[in-house]
Amino acid sequence: MIYLMPESPRYLMKHGKYEKALNSFNQIQTTPLLAARDFMYAHAQLDFESRMLKGRANECANLADRVDPSLSVGASGPLQAQLNVRNPSHTSISPGQSIREVEATANLVVSHESQPRDSHQQSSQRDGNSGERSIELTSLPRRQSDVSTLDIDLGIREAIQATLKKENPYSYHIGVTGYYKRLGQLWSNMRCRRALLASSVAMMSQQMTGVNAIAFLGAIVWSKSLGDASVIANDPVKHKKSAETAAIIGLAFGAANYLGGLPAYWLSDRIGRSIMLALGFPNMAWSMLVFAFLIKISDSSIQIPLVSIFAVIFVLFYAPTAGTSPFSISAEVFPLVSREAGMAVAVAVNLLGAGVLVLVFPFVMNSIGRTGSLSIFAGLNVVAFVLVYLLVPETKGRTLEELQYTFDLPTRWHIRYRATYIQEHIRKNWWRYLTRKEIAEEDIPVEYYEWARIEIEKERSSTERD
């Protein structure tokens, strides 16, 4: 019996396929109750993030208070006053029901207020004529600071218009927002723009390592590093031997790239994606520099083994860090509602860098030589380390809410966090890290968003004193 894994439930929900999404949760979870819980949580998270993208983030506030209260979602405030709807307990809209029937139902609900039921026990009903399940729109008790699905005051008329126009009122539904609108949000929305900056820096840093200069142009680099090209070209025996040696070294390089990436499965969750990425660049810088100068050795009996060894050393530093972390970071930094668009742009940035590298590197190598061109990548590894350290927040173990906290804050706060607070922590505890000694609990650094909250309170207190 072949068991097929279900499609991603959140993917199905974003495409309005709620029944299939619930079935997917049922296949993943052990009981229908747990599946329903996960379904409701996914809906609340998607709806929450879509509201956050529409609102103005307040970095000084708690997560529940970060949406501008004046923001109108669904139908609120003025629309409710126009309809004179005084918190109806619930109104059902069947797919085959006309606008007049729904408005008549709404007027009936307003004129005859019913006793409110428990907000968590609202159930959908079946239309007696069509046999179809109706969609229940409920208005539930709320607090001013709540930002959740329960906070949406659904107005009758606007819900009807949204249903008739797009057949789904939820703004995270891809049929309502559209792919290109989500793509535009990556630049127009501050939270998405900061996530795009982090993912783009991580992706570009991968191309700055120089690994693809060897991977894409390996035959050229290896063959030219194994002796004088004019002599090899005129001697068929040497030409064949050179090609075979280059192929063997290239095979070893690729095998090391594959095997070196396996530790990332547990290292990225143990150490962290951003930290792993940053730790790889200094080691790639010195190994690339040694590799570049070993090519200048004229004795092939010494050159070939040393070049091969340091090529493998370089790729073993690359594979578990810059080889894997950029994709993990890019897959996590974006909110769920625009993740597919964000990941697409991040991968496009990576491939654009690879394309530029393939076009430019041969000209640079012919102009300044193999050693000079590869030495440039050694310097670019140092530049990439600085960029990643300052601009790419850690995403290991972060919940969606914590990621929202992180990217609500301006990028300058993260630069300050890494350049001052973390730098001071490393200066005090570097020997403990080196000797793998336990760090005292009071010396463990707080998370970025917690540190920012403390600093904001300090600045607020000092301003009030002044």
Give the structure's gist in a few sentences:
The protein has 21 helices and two strands. It is mainly α.
Write the layout of secondary structure elements.
Elements: H1 9-14, H2 18-28, H3 32-54, H4 78-83, E1 90-93, H5 99-111, E2 135-138, H6 156-166, H7 174-177, H8 179-188, H9 190-208, H10 211-216, H11 218-225, H12 229-234, H13 236-261, H14 264-270, H15 273-294, H16 300-318, H17 325-333, H18 339-391, H19 400-408, H20 411-434, H21 448-465
Antiparallel strand pairs: 1-2
Helix pairs in contact: 2-3, 8-9, 9-17, 9-18, 11-13, 13-16, 15-16, 15-17, 15-18, 17-18
Q: What overall form do the CA principal axes indicate?
A: globular
Tell me the number of helical segments per DSSP (H or I, 4 or more residues long). Answer: 21
CATH architecture of the largest domain: Up-down Bundle
SSE series: HHHHEHEHHHHHHHHHHHHHHHH
Describe the structure in your own words.
The protein is mainly alpha-helical and 466 residues long. The protein folds into four domains: 9-65; 78-113 and 120-165, no CATH class; 188-398, MFS general substrate transporter like domains (Growth Hormone, Chain: A); 411-465, no CATH class. It is built from 21 helices and two strands. Helix 2 (18-28) packs across helix 3 and helix 8 (179-188) packs across helix 9 (190-208). The longest helix has 53 residues, at 339-391. Residues 1-5, 67-154 and 228-232 have low confidence and may be disordered.
